[in-house]
Amino acid sequence: MDILLLSMASVFERERLNGHYGVTAFVIGNTLSAIPFLLLISLIPGALVYYLVGLHQGHEQFLYFTSVLFISVLLVEGLMMIVTSMVPNFLMGIIFGSGILGVMMLDGGFYRLPSDIPKPFWRYPLHYISFHKYAYQGLFKNEFQGLKFTSKQLGGPANFSGEEILRNLWQVDINYSKWLDLAILAGMAIVYRILFLVIIKCFEKMKPIVTAINFPQPNFRFTKVTRSNEIE
């Protein structure tokens, strides 16, 4: 996906210089044209994985699972478009974008529980601006809420609920619905697209100024030519 977006950025720059379309038309057209493809690559692998590992056998749960996958892929595409608009180098764009996604993944709450994440910088604010946090929490709630489990541990409770697993094991905030997590993901995807549009417009306005500073126009001196009163 990184290679595709970087190639698309170079195509857009060439087409924009030729005056074929504007920035807003490009962002809207790119988003609408990408939705069917992203929906397809979310639905097919999601259906294979969902029923292969035996997740919650409910139509609502499967719809939510594929929706989280779709919005997450759409969000990642928007994030990489922001990176490609700011990093002109092909290799640096891939490295920088992969680094951002790696940091978000580490702070999402899966590899380290929220209470174990260092509070300065890593938890506040990175943990809360990482889209993995809301994707993980939404998927955990989608799978465990409403289920009952039997414990075989001696001296412990005979039965426990899925909400207890979410609260005590995964440290998931169950005070709000999983659909709010999905809405936050959708809002982040929209914000990334708007931010991409703003960055491109700003760069488009700043480019003539930067060009004028780096390559100043030469000063031409005009000499006034007067005609002689007498013609020899």
UniProtKB/TrEMBL annotation:
Could you tell me the keywords of this UniProt record? Membrane, Transmembrane, Transmembrane helix, Transport
* Alphabetized InterPro entries for the sequence: ABC2_TM, Plant_ABCG
Q: Which GO terms describe its cellular component?
A: membrane
- Transmembrane segments in this chain: where? 21-50, 62-83, 90-111, 179-200
Domain named ABC-2 type transporter transmembrane is located at: 9-144
Q: What is this protein called?
A: Putative ABC-2 type transporter
> According to the lineage, what is the superkingdom?
Eukaryota
Query: Which residues belong to the signal peptide in this entry?
Result: none
Q: Where would you say this protein principally sits, based on its record?
A: membrane
